[in-house]
Amino acid sequence: MHVHKLEKVWLAIGFITLVAFLTTVGIQAFASGQGAPSGLTKVDPENVEETPPFDDPGLHQIGENEYELVMILQSYGFTPNEVTIPEGATVHFKITSKDVVHGFEIAGTTVNMMATPGHVNETTYTFDEAGSFLILCNEYCGTGHHLMSAELEVE
Ligand code: CUA
């Protein structure tokens, strides 16, 4: 079979480019540890309530006006579903889902992440102003999706 010379050249360019991309992605993911961050901390979705920190969900003070907020998401609710924090507090959220993928959005803030079963999803936010914040599931998760919310009071 005759393959045109230019065709060979382009095949070679395609192959070299593919190897270069895969090498770059591989080095980033494995050697430099820049893989998807949500995959770093795992939790058995069947035993969430027995596994720290989810065996003690809620707000825990870890510093001067610094807190860890542990929340479990499931169809169709948040545990706990009412939290009060002091104004100016920095909150480290640690969340997971017991069943399907849920969303975790705090309306009026930049907090917006997914809660994926098997993973601990984390983010940090400082609440500089007092007020009532609505925590919403923004990932369609079933018939009760629109009912899935929690409240965060900053005072
Ligand atoms: Cu949970 Cu939508």
From TrEMBL:
Compartment list: Cell envelope
Q: Which Pfam families match?
A: COX2 (PF00116)
Q: Does the keyword field hold Electron transport?
A: no
Keyword S-adenosyl-L-methionine listed? The answer is no
Task: Give all residue intervals belonging to the Cytochrome oxidase subunit II copper A binding domain.
Answer: 49-155
**Matching PROSITE patterns, A to Z?**
COX2, COX2_CUA
Q: Sorted alphabetically, which keywords does the UniProt record give?
A: Copper, Membrane, Metal-binding, Transmembrane, Transmembrane helix
Catalysis performed (reactions): 4 Fe(II)-[cytochrome c] + O2 + 8 H(+)(in) = 4 Fe(III)-[cytochrome c] + 2 H2O + 4 H(+)(out)
Q: Which positions, given as ranges, span the membrane?
A: 9-31
Task: Quote the function comment for this protein.
Answer: Subunits I and II form the functional core of the enzyme complex. Electrons originating in cytochrome c are transferred via heme a and Cu(A) to the binuclear center formed by heme a3 and Cu(B).
Protein name (record): Cytochrome aa3 subunit 2
- The organism of origin for this protein: Alkalibacillus flavidus
